[in-house]
Design goal:
By secondary structure, the protein is an all-alpha fold.
């Protein structure tokens, strides 16, 4: 009888202890809920992130008994981890502006358009051009702002399907944001996982290109066989006259580089202005330092622009670069710093331990752990509604999950880190295209409405035919779960017994 009472007492204590653990876990997760709620309610990240950081700080001090100094030191250390990424980001912005202004972007667009565009092919041309341009500029937003006026109005001229074309350029714009050497998401996701950007690009390159090719084929099939679009050819000479004054004024105010690009597309630039893009890609493949790759693009764009007549005084070009530095040093950098500080404090109080424990509990194989990491990245993006917030916040979590639960050689663990970096970036950038409340879609809808006011765009329109995002997200998860990634060159994850789950 006494033993029974004793057992009941111990079980009761155990139950109480477990309930307290769950309650503490929920409280520690509250800052994430606060951040997600504010982002979903369309608060600016520079309001949402500081509020969430303060909430995390309060919980860490009063519940976890961390000192204020320790919390601040942890936050600063987390910010310092992305400093190199911030410097690269500033140079990336300079290169993006240079490519738009000097004619590099226009040359790429004109090369594609010279082949002749019809209603059936415009979506295919759109996704290919924006994919190349986004690799060159490293920004999906900049690519969308530059290409939306061209392709949405060109679509109008050739009588294409506006939603199909919009989804094509949105998906293509995200291609370079996921794999571009100078993309901020590529740089930050790689930095958090401790891998080289060039290694990331090399290992996921074939998979990315296959996704792009499959998406392009799907766009053509849907345009020709499903929607049965006409084969009318278009003429870009009248694009500027077709753009409403309000839309043009918006571009002149918010993105003057896009206006430069539009004018250059109409007037034409020498095809050799595409050389800076080729040079950057070649140097990246050859494993040159990121700063060398970016610098070569900036310098060569100016030098080739002199005989092309697209660049003038060196001082004016340097002013352009300086302005780009300032643009990168404003909202994006400050937001990244706040989110990094938030993630540092959250990691300090082990706020994501319950998620990590759950992944470890349900996983019986290494690929199960990695699949869960991919799902966590996608869920994090949906909750936070911002791909950079997801990368900086969830990235360290999936890194720790892999390190705490998987063991293998240094080479094999590096491959694990590369896949985690791909998860963070791909589920952030491509996943954003499938989340109606995401800031990505909000931006795309805003740009599309301004440059093409003849159609009332909504987030669902950018999801409806976004085959690039659908294929990338679905294939990455399925390839990881099934082990079929072994059929994709350079993309294979190490398998048991090369790597194995740790025994606890």
């Amino acid at each position: 009888m006494e033993t029974s009472h004793t057992n009941h007492f111990f079980y009761g204590c155990f139950e109480k202890e477990e309930k307290m653990k769950i309650l503490k876990g929920i409280i520690k997760f509250l800052p994430v809920i606060i951040l997600a709620t504010l982002m979903i309610k369309e608060f600016d990240a520079l309001i949402a992130a500081p509020i969430a950081t303060i909430a995390a700080l309060i919980i860490a001090i009063f519940m976890e008994k961390h000192s204020f100094k320790d919390c601040i030191d942890t936050a600063m250390k987390s910010v310092s981890n992305i400093l190199i990424a911030l410097f690269i980001l500033m140079f990336a912005y300079a290169m993006a502006s240079a490519f738009m202004t000097t004619g590099v972007g226009a040359a790429v667009v004109n090369i594609a358009l010279s082949a002749g565009v019809t209603a059936r092919s415009i979506a295919v041309v759109g996704i290919c051009v924006t994919a190349v341009l986004s690799v060159a500029t490293g920004t999906s937003w900049g690519t969308m702002a530059a290409c939306a006026p061209i392709f949405l109005w060109l679509n109008h001229i050739v009588h294409g399907d506006i939603v199909l074309t919009a989804c094509a350029i949105a998906g293509g714009a995200c291609f370079g944001d996921n794999i571009g050497l100078i993309s901020d998401t590529t740089i930050v996701s790689s930095g958090i996982q401790g891998v080289e950007v060039v290694d990331r690009i090399r290992t996921q390159g074939v998979w990315s290109i296959l996704c792009l090719a499959l998406a392009a084929i799907t766009f053509y099939i849907v345009g020709s066989a499903v929607l049965k679009l006409p084969t009318t050819h278009g003429d870009v000479s009248g694009i500027m006259d077709s753009v409403p004054k309000a839309a043009l004024d918006y571009l002149k105010s918010e993105k003057p580089e896009a206006v430069d690009l539009l004018n250059q597309v109409v007037k034409g630039v020498p095809y050799y202005m595409a050389i800076p893009l080729v040079l950057v890609i070649v140097l990246a493949i050859a494993k040159f330092n990121t700063f060398i790759c970016i610098g070569s693009g900036i310098v060569s764009a100016y030098l080739l622009g002199l005989p092309a007549g697209t660049t003038g005084k060196l001082t004016e070009y340097l002013d352009l670069c300086k302005s780009a530095f300032g643009e990168a040093g404003s909202w994006v950098v400050v937001m990244m710093m706040w989110v990094a500080a938030f993630g540092g404090i959250m990691r300090q109080m082990h706020a994501f331990d319950p998620l990590a424990h759950f992944v470890a509990k349900v996983s019986s194989k290494v690929r199960h752990v990695m699949f869960c990491n991919g799902v966590l990245s996608l869920i994090g993006n949906a909750v936070l509604a911002d791909e950079m917030a997801q990368i900086v916040t969830v990235g360290p979590i999936i890194k720790e999950i892999a390190e705490d639960n998987i063991e293998g050689s240094e080479e094999d663990m590096y491959k694990i880190k590369l896949r985690n970096a791909t998860f963070g970036d791909a589920m952030g950038v491509f996943g954003s295209q499938l989340i109606p409340w995401h800031v990505y879609l909000g931006f795309y809808v805003g740009v599309a409405k301004n440059v093409y006011p003849l159609f009332k765009f909504t987030p669902k329109h950018f999801i409806m035919y976004n085959f690039m995002a659908m294929i990338a997200v679905a294939s990455l998860l399925l390839l990881t779960l099934t082990g079929a990634d072994k059929f994709v060159p350079l993309f294979r994850l190490p398998r048991e017994p090369e790597v194995k789950l740790k025994e606890f």
